[in-house]
Amino acid sequence: MKHKDTIDYEGLVQSAVRKVMRDVLRDVAKNGLPGKHHFYIDFVTHYPGVEMPAYLREDYPDDMTIVLQYEYWDLVVDDKKFSITLTFDDAEERLIVPFEAIIKFVDPSVNFGLEFTPDLNDYTELDLDPIFSEMDDSQKKEIKPLAEGESNVVTLDAFRKK
For the residues 91-114, what does the mean pLDDT come to? Predict the structure, then answer.
């Protein structure tokens, strides 16, 4: 195992706080929502492991907010993700959302909220070939390799349809 030069405090805190959210969702899956509690959950729709109908991904190409309040079914929570059935335009749809894809978790009934930064290293699992093949030449020219010492953060602006 390679030894790191620094302690990843941010990553450790995010992991601990995600555990709080996971434990809350597990309790709700088992016992239902207590009192007036309800949740707004924002997540990155193109994050690896997110499963949702294609038409929803088309409508929400970057992120999406779902509400867990009155009409949701079959909430299942495991260590890495949750799945839930919600209604969109009178159609019941199943969503699977990895906890790492979540960017906000808010319970407005008690003025409680959490914000997260998804681990961009997980984006390496994305298959960009289909996206790249749909790009025109001007968009492809916007993609530049990193020089030595530059950040490994990749902007996806070149991949967005204009």
Answer: 90
